[in-house]
Design goal:
This protein has 16 helices and 15 strands. It is of the alpha/beta class. Helix 8 (168-185) links the parallel strand 4 and strand 5.
């Protein structure tokens, strides 16, 4: 790890527009790797870091050759959920380290040959499990993301990019796994978070961009932004929100438009010039610090983006944060037009006999219905307290916090005198 190189990346984020690469998977597949190259794990692109580093190198070289400042490592699926589906979860560190090492070697070669510093962003993808829906335990995901990040730090990544996130609990697992890796290794890298907002206007599980910002910014990320799912046009209003309210720097890596189905399958219609136009406008309007491409974008797309934004200085932003709390779905500002913030207390085992009896009987649906009653009556947030003598508070909190997270649109106020109970609710 080079402290001077990482300091230079932070300085670049602060003073100009940094350009990242575009799509990775399609360019790997275009080189027609064999089933043997995949070690009979067809579609596991991260295996190519070990079996065919030449293919992975060639993709990085193609992007650096058109002038991008940084490339993402071929580690999008180097996490517990994705590698677990191939029955190789124990290879998270190995494939993360090898992916970062390949990118680092290519970046250093281009730095030496051009005299311009190039960087490596360590890609931490979402995997295939949504912990909010109970697909995988939060702690296991977090600890595997820590190994993912530790591998990329060992391989020479300059920043950690938590990307394409669809579930805020999965996003937290990745960010906190990254931060634990930085603490464990003594490294000091920027942590970037890029969420994916669908054409519906929310993340996959229904989270608005305000909910994402309120939930993720306090975790200490250096930058927040959007990537994947849509083209730049559909990202516009969400980027406007981030530019207006985020204390961090802001990024955007859209697809080359929305996919169009044709007789030869899906293709992405946005031309290189149109992507360059969009990024120029984003930089001028929203002061973006990092731009790039996602699905459907090619080296030619990024060549034109580089030409268009290379000499732009992002305007200074004057963010106006909105202090608040968030549920899975929406953020609730602490400042209310009604002049006070109403916290519903009827889901408190010490304050509500009806709730306590339902909890003691394991009538969880009744507990959820009491929460919904308070939503209908105008509460802004819900107090959740399961403390009761003789009960397993951790088990009760896991049961009810998990149910409330998806059944209620309101933020939850976790209320307990016991630290393990609060931890269970947060996880």
């Amino acid at each position: 790890m080079s402290a001077a190189r990482i300091d230079a990346l932070r300085e670049a984020f602060a003073t100009r527009v940094v350009v990242a690469d575009g799509a990775m998977g399609t360019m790997l597949q275009e080189q027609d790797p064999t089933l043997e190259d995949f070690e009979n794990l067809e579609g596991c692109n991260e295996i190519l870091n070990v079996t065919r580093p030449d293919i992975v190198r060639s993709v990085h070289e193609a992007y650096f050759a058109v002038g991008v400042d940084c490339v993402e490592t071929n580690t999008f699926g180097a996490n517990l959920a994705a590698l677990g589906e191939y029955d190789i979860p124990e290879r998270v560190f190995e494939l993360s380290e090898s992916g970062a090492r390949i990118a680092r070697e290519v970046a250093d070669e281009f730095t030496a040959s051009t005299g311009r510093q190039r960087w490596v962003l360590g890609s931490m993808g979402p995997g295939t499990k949504l912990p909010t829906l109970g697909h995988a335990p939060y702690v296991k995901l977090r600890d595997a993301y820590q190994r993912n990040a530790e591998g990329m730090i060992a391989g020479g990544a300059d920043a950690l990019l938590v990307e394409t996130t669809q579930d805020l609990l999965q996003t937290k697992a990745a960010i906190l796994g990254a931060r634990r890796a930085l603490d464990a290794t003594g490294a000091d890298l920027p942590v970037i978070c890029s969420v994916t907002v669908e054409t519906t206007g929310t993340m996959l599980l229904g989270s608005e961009i305000g909910a994402a910002l309120t939930a993720l910014e306090p975790l200490g990320v250096d930058m927040i932004g959007l990537n994947c799912a849509t083209g730049p046009a559909e990202m516009n209003e969400h980027l406007r929100y981030l530019a207006r309210h985020a204390r961090t720097r802001v990024s955007a890596m859209p697809n080359a438009g929305l996919p169009v189905l044709g007789k030869n399958g899906a293709h992405y219609p946005l031309s290189p010039a149109e992507l360059a136009d969009a990024h120029e406008n984003f930089v001028r309007d929203y002061g973006l610090s990092l731009v790039g491409g996602c699905c459907g974008t090619t080296p030619e797309h990024l060549r034109q983006v580089v030409e268009r934004v290379r000499d732009l200085t992002p305007p200074a932003r004057d963010p106006r944060p909105e202090p608040g709390a968030t549920s899975l779905y929406q953020t609730v500002p602490f400042r209310q037009d009604t002049a006070y913030l109403a916290i519903g207390e009827r889901t408190n085992a010490n304050g509500s006999k009806k709730f306590r009896e339902a909890m003691l009987d394991g009538r969880w649906d009744d507990c959820v219905e009491m929460a919904r009653d308070q939503i209908r009556e105008g509460a802004h947030m819900l107090d959740l307290c399961v403390d009761y003598v003789g009960r397993d508070g951790v088990a009760d909190m896991e049961e009810l916090a998990g149910r409330f997270a998806t059944a209620s649109t309101l933020p939850i106020v976790l209320d307990s005198t016991e630290l393990p109970v609060l931890q269970a609710g947060l996880e």
